Amino acid sequence: MYPWGLDTSDNWLREPASPMRWLIARIFALAIIILAVFTSFSAHAQFEIPIALDVRVAGDKEASRIIVDFDRPVVGMPQLLEHPWRLVLDFDRIGFGFDPEPERWTGMVSDLRWGDMSEVNSRIIFEVEQPFRIVNIENVENAETNTHRIIVDLALSDAETFKAALLDRMRTSAVVNRDGKSGRLGDPSAAPSRSGAFRIVVDPGHGGIDTGALGRGRTIEKEITLAFSRELKAELETRPGIEVIMTRDSDIFIPLNDRVQFARQHNADLFVSIHADSVRQRYVRGATVYTISEKASDSVAAEIAESENKSDAIAGLTFEDQPDDVSDILIDLARRETLGFSVQFARLAVDSISDEVRMIKNPHRHAGFRVLRAPDVPSVLIELGFLSNADDEKLLNQEDWRAKVATQIASAVESFAALSGREIAEQRVSK
Ligand SMILES: [Zn+2]
Considering only CA atoms, which of 300, 289, 406, 274 is closest in space to residue 348? Predict the structure, then answer.
């Protein structure tokens, strides 16, 4: 029997009645073989990424086991989130081929979400009813079913222990050191100790699932922020004594808090987040430099901060007050010092940028930006212009214009480094 199911008992295939019929039969058979080979190749291509085949949870309210089956080995990076308590498993891109039945689960997990965070990362989120701790996490191959399991054992804990584990994971996990190209998690030990150089973290706003604002001419904010940040990095690197690290150098999503933690983990002397948002008032235009404050300086600032702070929600993270690890007065003092430096840099940036390009009226503004919350790293957010304004949108798309603004910001960074770099280094509170 031929695999493609032709009935070979028929004589016409073996002993063709005429050469023409024989030829047609051969062509037909060849076509089927080519089709079969092609289909198997494309099926293979489709399954190049691991597929999650099944998710289940068993146990009781004190201890539970999560099992995720895959068709091939994978690495899952666990993370913790609170409000509500969650276990997050981050993966290089995976496919989702399961149809979970939470109503049949037993144990502590009450809810499950999953999806892609970018072109290269995927995530499964387990909501847990009580604070918990991870007792064990392992990969197990099941030879019988030819599947590869991730097993996570959870045990009931208390809020304090959970919070401590969460903070610990934030400080030590490599999750914030994503290498954009492969989507793999970088080496946490790559955060080098303080050298003599002034270190600036440039943060291209948005990315991945969070596109940011959309211009009237279809300009996408996340693309402008990345293009500009690359330009700024190149410009800064021409200046001696300045070291530049970017939070992302590709189209990936990074939660706001991870951006803050990235700057802290890298002992940054300055954090600059780059944006180009839109507001309802289309006539509003020009660059703005923002520092943090609890109360917004004006309605535009409040609107911008509100839309920036939605980034996490867009990516499916619950909007929540992220842990600040601000518990003692020392950190409050550090925050006050830090804010002083942030404001100092904002003024330098406004002076320098306004030499060359148009700025909004009162260009130094403040509002409650979550991405500016590092207690120990001076942080500013620069809105290069407004994508809601047609003239600004045109400028934002011009390489020459971007280069000009990058040069002005780099000059401000240079002045700031000369003024206060050393001082800042001495006043940091150790974590
Ligand atoms: Zn933005």
Answer: 289
Amino acid identity of 391?
D
Cα 100 to ligand 1 centre (Å) = 35
Q: What CA–CA distance (Å, rounded) separates 225 from 383? A: 9
Q: What angle do CA 376, 378, 384 make, to 5 degrees?
A: 145
* Token pair recorded at residue 179: 């290498």
| Dist. CA 273 → ligand 1 center (Å) | 9
- Distance between Cα 252 and ligand 1 center (Å): 14
- Return phi, psi of residue 207, to 5°: 130, 155
Portion of the chain with pLDDT greater than 70, in percent = 76
Average the pLDDT over 341-362 and give the result. Answer: 93
- Is the model's pLDDT at 305 over the cut of 70? yes
**pTM for the full model?**
0.56
Evaluate the omega torsion of the peptide bond into residue 73 and state whether it is cis, within 30 degrees of 0: no
Measured distance between the N- and C-terminal CA atoms of the chain, rounded to whole angstroms: 72
Compute the average pLDDT of residues 214-228: 95
303: Cβ–Cβ under 8 A, 6 or more apart, which residues? 279, 280
Q: At how many degrees (to 10) do helices 256-265 and 159-172 cross?
A: 60
Q: In what order do the strands lie in the sheet with 51-59?
A: 95-96, 51-59, 63-70, 147-156, 132-142
> What distance in angstroms lies between residue 112's CA and the mean position of ligand 1's atoms?
29
For 94-149, the pLDDT digits (tens) are 888 888 887 888 899 988 888 776 667 788 889 899 999 999 888 888 888 888 99
Average pLDDT over residues 330-335: 62
> Is residue 323 very low, low, confident or very high in pLDDT (cuts 50, 70, 90)?
very low
Q: Give strand ranges (E) for 190-235.
A: 198-204
Q: Within 10 Å of residue 92's Cβ, how many Cβ atoms?
A: 17
